[in-house]
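Good morning C.,

I know you're traveling, so I'll keep this short. The sequence:
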Amino acid sequence: MNKRIVNPWKWQNERSYVQAVEVTNTEGTLYISGQTAIDADGKSSTEDMKPQLIKAIENLEKVIEEADYECRNIVRLDVYTTSTEEFFSCFDVFQNWTKENNVQQASTVLEVKGLFETLKIELEAIVVK
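The tokens, ready to paste straight into the viewer:
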């Protein structure tokens, strides 16, 4: 697999995403449903944004690993949240995770009216191999 990052500017670097990712010669593509703060028994979290974000990241990692892919090969990661204000108050968690895993992804953050049950954050990803 060949991956090329396209960034005509520098300002997005501090925001933990890239403008575009070109991928060629892939072995596979994994399309991941939105991952949230739901436990192994299917119970939705009632916690605040930060612990929900941490759990959503853990669940995303679990799906990626189970499929035999790697987080560093995430090429698209969209964030759905019921509050961008709350999400950006713990954005360092997201930024540290992308940095630690060498994730350079195209990304969109959307504030939505609601998510399933008590959930505040959902991460939807595309990963290549």
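Safe travels,
E.
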